[in-house]
Every structure is written in structure tokens, then in C-alpha cells.
Amino acid sequence: MALPSGPAAEGSVCEESVCEGVYKGVCEVEDPGAAPFGNFINYYSFNPPENRLELIPASLLQQLGLNPDPDPVLLLDVGCNSGDLSIALYKHLLQDHLSDRGSPGNVHLLGFDLDQDLISRAQDSNPFPQNIRFIPLDITQQESHAELRAYLQKFGRRRFHLCSCFAVTMWVHLNHGDAAFLALLSGLASLSEYLLLEVQPWKCYRSAARRLRKLGRSDFEHFKTLQIRGDMATHAKDHLEQRCSMQLAQSFGWTSWDRSVLLFRRR
Ligand SMILES: C[S@@+](CC[C@H](N)C(=O)[O-])C[C@H]1O[C@@H](n2cnc3c(N)ncnc32)[C@H](O)[C@@H]1O
After folding, report:
1. Where is each Bin3-type SAM domain found (predicted)?
2. How confident is the model at residue 6 (pLDDT cuts 50, 70, 90)?
3. Which of 12, 109, 148, 212 would be 217's cystine partner, CB 3.0–4.6 Å?
4. Would the CB of 38 count as within 6 Å of ligand 1?
């Protein structure tokens, strides 16, 4: 399946430019330079969960044949920040279940983020602690994969049924380079049957780098030497399809920030 072409080429919003603009007051107090991994403390006040959820069908689990009875369905949310989108996605995908039974039943979500403060906030606001867990984890560290495998083993599974990775790839790429960008995609592919991916476009890399320069900080370590640049969604798709036995199953369209939300499935 080919990627649909985007609605706008330039001039759309990125988390960095919004953070500089609309939330200037907050960011100046909190210092956006202190969020070099995209670990913005007020992310959901400028990019609410609905921006992504409105593209994702509430019946997605059923459409993918993921039925939580009798075996558990396992979801993973990568770089979950303060958990708002993870929880909203969970409720969104389980809305029929919740209204019929009043409980989420056998669907489990694991969310992780490298920022311990954000994870503490996610834990404090978790409405389903029996079913949703938030843990601190840096996906670029080798040990993190062992921890995710250990979680899967408790359920007797080798992979998550559905893994979501929204607006994280750029931060790994800028902070750790090309190899880490590809390793992130390969690692997530090896952990999931289905992968829901929102990749930041290249213009957001430029905004992020500009933001650091304006703050008088040195550039992201890898920005100038990245070889993988340009059409980031196509780079991700090519890697997943050519190297990771994944296949683009569906494009859910474009968010209000002009980012595509893509669903890949294991071949
Ligand atoms: C822009 S926010 C996106 C949050 C959420 N996924 C969403 O789209 O609503 C990026 C998040 O990725 C996290 N992150 C960046 N690099 C990471 C890594 N190596 N391991 C885990 N989380 C990471 C950041 O801490 C931040 O919370």
C-alpha cells in the first residue's frame, strides 16, 4: 500500500513551535530547553488526545480481530508522557465494552516514558490500575526490551497485540541518531503484531533545532549529520516493510498538525 500524499507541505504546527508560541508563558517559566526529549510538561494542553483519536476508529480492536475473551489483549504505548493519550485511547477502543460491562475486562495497556515525573503523574491519574500500568523506561536502552519481554511473559505472549508510538520518533532520532531511529522501528516491530505510528515530519526537526538555538543551547547532537531526512513517514514505512516484516495496513489520515497516523501489521 502506498502512502497518501500530505495535505500541506510547510508552515504547519509542531510541538516545539506551539510550545514557543501559544504556551510561551508556561515554557519560559518551565524552560523548554529542559524538555530535550519532547518531555513537555503540558503537552496535552496544546495537543489534546482528540487530535489523534478522531482519526482512529473506536472499533479498531474488533476490526483487527482482537477479542479480549478469553485471552488477554495487550497494548503498549511508547513515550506516553503524562498518560493522557494512553488513557484516552484505551477508553476510546473499549467504549462499547465499558458501557456494556462497566469494566474494561481483559484488555491491558502498558505505557512507558523516560521521564519519571511524567510517569508519576500518569500513575496518579490512572483510572484502571488493574488494567493499565505506567513505568519509566528509555526505549533506547538495551535493558528496556528485556523489561518489555518480561511483561509479555507474564501473559504468556511474545508480542503486544497493538503498539502505539505517537510523536516519539523525532526525539529518539535527534538525540541518538540514524541508527537509533531505525533500531526504534525495528524494536517496536519485533514487539508487536500491529503498530500504530505517528512520525514527526522533517519540518518539525528544523523547528526543534531552531528552538534550541534561540535558547542559546548547542544543537541536538545528531541534527546536522542525520542522513535519514526529508519524507520521514516514507523512511519509516520503507524500513518497516523492507527490514521488519511489517506491512502498511491502513492510513488513518492526517492530524490537525499534518501528521499521518499509520497502521502497520506483521506480514
Ligand atoms: C512529544 S511527546 C508525545 C507524547 C505522546 N506519545 C503523545 O503523542 O501524546 C514525546 C514523548 O516521548 C518521550 N520519549 C522521548 N524519547 C524517549 C525514549 N528514548 N524512551 C521513552 N520515551 C521517550 C518523551 O519523554 C515525551 O514524553
Report:
1. 50-267
2. low
3. 212
4. yes
- How many angstroms does the Cα of residue 170 sit away from the middle of ligand 1? 9
Q: Is 74 helix (H, G, I), strand (E, B) or coil?
A: strand
Residue nearest to atom 20 of ligand 1 (CA): 138
Q: Is residue 87 part of a domain?
A: yes
105: phi then psi, degrees, rounded to nearest 5: 65, -130
Kindly report whether the global pTM for this prediction surpasses the value 0.80.
yes
pLDDT at position 7 is: 59
The verdict on residue 18 lying in a domain is no
- Domain of residue 104: give its range: 46-200+226-266
* Residue 130 domain-assigned (yes or no): yes
CATH number, domain of 126, equals 3.40.50.150
Element containing residue 215 per DSSP (H, E): none
Is 144 within a domain?
yes
Q: Is the CB of 113 under 6 A from ligand 1?
A: yes
List alpha helices for 130-265, DSSP H: 142-154, 169-176, 178-191, 202-214, 232-243
Share of the chain above pLDDT 70, in %: 90
As a whole number of angstroms, the distance between CA 113 and CA 133 comes to: 12
Task: Please work out whether the CB of residue 16 comes within 6 Å of at least one atom of ligand 1.
Answer: no
